[in-house]
Amino acid sequence: MDIDKKIIRILKNNARESNQNIARNLGVSEGTIRNRIKSLTENGKIKRFTVIASTDVSAICMVETIAGIETSKIVEKIMEINDIVKIYEISGEYSVVCNIESSTISELNDSVELIRKIEGVNDTKTYTILKDH
């Protein structure tokens, strides 16, 4: 595995890992790590550094849209819902998949209900996440 892939793997596990610790782990200089991270960021291999907060309830919501309604407009409306953390446009029976993270099952249900009310949404199928690996 090349050094860039190793750096990305380490940062995916802990985005706050210090360059010095990464360098020590990989047997290279801290300057090498700093330069590689800068390059990975500039060329788009690393898009952003983020925080994944722990939540009490997470789910994946599949969204079936009505034919003829522009999916991107539906996605824009879904993005306005607070508990939505990630959205994917996909191929197949469902056009959109959302990752929802809420404090309670009631809040999760409220988010799904908001999705269902969006014009152009035909159906949803929601899967509660039981365990994250």
Tell the overall outline: elongated
Report mean pLDDT, rounded to a whole number.
90
How many helices in DSSP terms? 5
State the CATH topology of the largest domain: Alpha-Beta Plaits
Terminal residue distance: 22 Å
Oligomeric state: single chain
Q: Tell me the fraction of residues in β-strands, as a range.
A: 15-25%
Give unreliable regions as ranges: none
Q: Could you estimate the helical fraction of the residues in percent? A: 25-40%
CATH-defined superfamily of the largest domain = Lrp/AsnC effector binding domain/regulation of amino acid metabolism (RAM) domain
Looking at the overall shape, the CATH architecture of the largest domain is 2-Layer Sandwich
Number of strands: 4
Q: Could you describe the largest sheet, including whether it forms a barrel?
A: 4 strands, antiparallel
Order the strands across the largest sheet as they lie in space. 2-3-1-4
Describe the structure.
- The protein has 5 helices and 4 strands.
- It is of the alpha+beta class and 133 residues long.
- The chain folds into 2 domains: 3-42, Winged helix-like DNA-binding domain superfamily/Winged helix DNA-binding domain (Arc Repressor Mutant, subunit A, Orthogonal Bundle), CATH 1.10.10.10; 57-128, Lrp/AsnC effector binding domain/regulation of amino acid metabolism (RAM) domain (Alpha-Beta Plaits, 2-Layer Sandwich), CATH 3.30.70.
- A 4-stranded antiparallel beta sheet has the order 2-3-1-4, covered by helices on one side.
- α2 (19-26) crosses α3.
- The model has no long low-confidence stretch (mean pLDDT 90).
